[in-house]
Target: Lipocalin-like domain-containing protein
Amino acid sequence: MMKKFGQLFFAVTFFMLTSVSLMATNKTNPVPHYLDSPEVEAIAPNTFVGTWEYTVADVPYEYSKGLLIITKENKEYVVKVKLQYDTKQATEVSVNKNKMNFSVMVEGEKVMVALEVKDNSIAGKANSSQGQMSLAGKRSKS
Model:
């Protein structure tokens, strides 16, 4: 049974991959409209769009690492900060070339974050009443 499932899986995967490649080379088959949309931004080095795994030094363990999920919707950046037990929506998001600033509420306190992107890594500072903390991260592969 398992051998047949493996063969079926291989056949379906092969069919899907060859169909997609044939679609890409077929000039009479138009590109789907959602791929040609100006709202879709490719994930490329030196852009904030994507998912970032980050760490923060000198903070309690539950805040020492997490994910930044950054999207661009209607020309506006949207930042979500995924902590160990919660996800926070950032506000006051601004981007100027390879620099981003935003604020996020953590335990009732406003934390201001300033980041810079270079290739597939980010670095910056987070400021709160507890002081300034260093933040570093890399683009997530998932």
